[in-house]
Specification:
Blueprint (H helix, E strand, L loop, with lengths): L4 E3 L7 E8 L7 E2 L2 E3 L6 E7 L2 E3 L2 E6 L3 E3 L5 E3 L2 E6 L18 E4 L7 E3 L2 E3 L4 E4 L3 E2 L9 E2 L1 E4 L3 E5 L7 E4 L1 E4 L4 E5 L5 E4 L2 E3 L3 E5 L16 E4 L2 E3 L22
Parallel strand pairs: 1-4, 2-5, 3-6, 4-7, 5-8, 6-9, 7-10, 8-11, 9-12, 10-13, 11-14, 12-16, 13-17, 14-18, 17-20, 18-21, 19-22, 20-23, 21-24, 22-25, 23-26
Antiparallel strand pairs: 15-19
């Protein structure tokens, strides 16, 4: 329900829905809440379907601000910021084994997701970790659109392991220190209807596969269309916006 302000000093999730099953109507929802200073994931949703998470603010988590799985869940008009990584939390010297790169919003295991109007304003590692939408789905923008990410190392990230060709569209991606969109799936890749500005590298798109030991071949395609890429905008400050984040040196 509508909970208001939640401030936590506990190693557990600020709020978790675990194996709730199918949410019917408005019997459960997360609306208009503020989560501040958590020591783990802010909002976690697992084994739960048809849940609406809207108009919330999640600030300062260790790990993802929102980690969402399940079917037909809705993520609408949420603001998340200051998602910290476990390897850099309360560490002021280089940590060579920083293997975990959480996303401020992780939805790569969500199915039939609605994600509209969400904004990520700061993450020590990654903004969105997502499986994208099927390449051939011409109506995907009706359910996933108008999402934003800035002030991360990687704005949007996906590696491999999905069965469909990977597509993202209708994103605003700006001032991410390393890469706007990093993708290395095993299917073709498309970025469309998006704006990318003031990123060190706006796009780092690759396709991995088929396995060379399989002796199979496939035509893999990387497509960028109907998008605006701005190398350096008039709002980019050559000194203030060009400072290397201290945690960006903690690569494994």
């Amino acid at each position: 329900g509508q909970l208001g302000w939640i401030e936590t000093y506990d190693p557990r999730y600020s709020l978790a829905f675990l194996n709730v099953g199918e949410v019917k109507g408005n019997e459960s929802f997360i609306h208009g809440c503020s989560f501040h200073d958590g020591f783990n994931v802010g909002i976690g949703v697992y084994g739960t379907d048809n849940l609406t998470i809207d108009n919330n603010v999640v600030h300062h988590t260790v790990g993802p601000c929102i980690d969402l799985e399940g079917n037909r869940n809705k993520l609408i008009h949420n603001l998340v910021m200051m998602s910290l990584a476990e390897g850099t939390y309360k560490v002021d010297t280089p940590y060579k084994d920083d293997m975990k790169w959480p996303g401020a919003i992780q939805v790569e295991k969500a199915k039939d997701l609605t994600m509209i109007g969400n904004s990520i304003a700061g993450s020590e590692k990654i903004g969105y970790i997502t499986s994208g939408v099927p390449y051939e789905d011409l109506n995907a923008h009706k359910k996933i659109r108008d999402n934003e990410v800035h002030s991360t190392l990687y704005g949007i990230y996906y590696m491999k392991g999905i069965s469909h060709c990977w597509k993202i569209e209708h994103f605003l991606i700006w001032k991410n220190f390393d890469v706007g969109v990093y993708a290395w799936p095993d299917q073709s890749v498309m970025v469309s209807e998006s704006i990318l500005a003031d990123n060190k590298a706006s796009l780092f798109l690759n396709v991995f596969g088929p396995n060379p030991l399989s002796h199979r071949s496939r035509d893999n395609v990387i497509t960028v269309k109907n998008s605006l890429i701005i190398g350096k905008s008039s709002n980019f400050h050559c000194v203030d916006d060009n400072i290397t984040p201290w945690h960006s040196t903690f690569y494994a």
